[in-house]
């Protein structure tokens, strides 16, 4: 993806480099799996689900596809998309930037964005949440997960890779979802220590939302 617009390079470069190490570091997140169970309990059979920042396809796309749902996973990292397609053959994966991907209104039953907004600025994150809210049908679900800290353009290392991170505090991130027209049905807080020598424990916030029915 290095030939594309410079704004899209950092996340692709980071996750191309991490590959399966990212999956291994976060595979033991009980809160993430609990969030997936929350969604799976509410989806009708054969639902169409958008997985934003699908990574290696595990655990999100794999759990959804294994339950019989039709999954489209998108990621800016070509390495991640290749891994996901190999590991989760029951889902469809596409290298794409969610900021630009055409999304028809109401075309999905649910959308997930697990920790995939953190390298966007705040205006972009708010715009993407709004796009996801419109992409699910009325009555459909949107699940969002982030690291709920009030930082903007902070530079640091993530699993040894240089990153520039922007996020919202917990209440502010909930407000982003509400401004997008979503009803926040449940929120879960957790602390997770990734299984990687260069990772540090981090707070996690999961918002379980619904687009109100007409």
Automatic annotation (TrEMBL):
GO annotation (BP), single: methylation
InterPro entries per the UniProt record, alphabetical: Methyltransf_25, SAM-dependent_MTases_sf
The protein's name: Class I SAM-dependent methyltransferase
Keyword Transferase: yes
Taxonomic path: Bacteria, Bacillati, Actinomycetota, Actinomycetes, Kitasatosporales
Cited SUPFAM superfamilies: S-adenosyl-L-methionine-dependent methyltransferases
Protein keywords: Methyltransferase, Transferase
Superkingdom assignment: Bacteria
Species of origin: Streptomyces graminearus
CDD domains documented for this protein: AdoMet_MTases (cd02440)
An MF annotation (GO) of this entry: methyltransferase activity
A Pfam family hit: Methyltransf_25
Start and end residues of each Methyltransferase domain: 49-140
């Amino acid at each position: 993806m290095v030939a594309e617009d410079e704004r899209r390079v950092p996340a692709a470069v980071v996750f191309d480099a991490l590959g399966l190490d990212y999956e291994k570091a976060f595979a033991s997140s009980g809160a993430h799996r609990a969030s997936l169970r929350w969604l799976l309990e509410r989806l009708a059979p054969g639902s169409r689900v958008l997985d934003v920042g699908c990574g290696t396809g595990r655990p999100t796309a794999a759990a959804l596809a294994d339950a019989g749902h039709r999954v489209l996973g998108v990621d800016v990292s070509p390495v991640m998309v290749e891994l996901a397609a190999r590991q989760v053959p029951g889902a469809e994966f596409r290298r794409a930037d969610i900021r630009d991907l055409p999304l028809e209104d109401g075309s999905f039953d649910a959308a997930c964005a697990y920790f995939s907004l953190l390298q966007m600025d705040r205006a972009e994150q708010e715009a993407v949440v709004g796009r996801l809210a419109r992409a699910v049908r009325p009555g459909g679900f949107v699940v969002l997960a982030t690291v709920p800290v009030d930082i903007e353009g902070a530079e640091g290392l993530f699993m040894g890779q240089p990153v520039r991170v922007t996020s919202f505090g917990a209440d502010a991130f909930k407000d982003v979802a509400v401004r997008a027209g979503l009803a926040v049905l449940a929120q879960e807080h957790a602390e997770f220590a990734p299984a990687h020598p260069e990772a540090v424990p981090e707070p996690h916030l999961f918002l379980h939302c619904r687009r109100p029915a007409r």
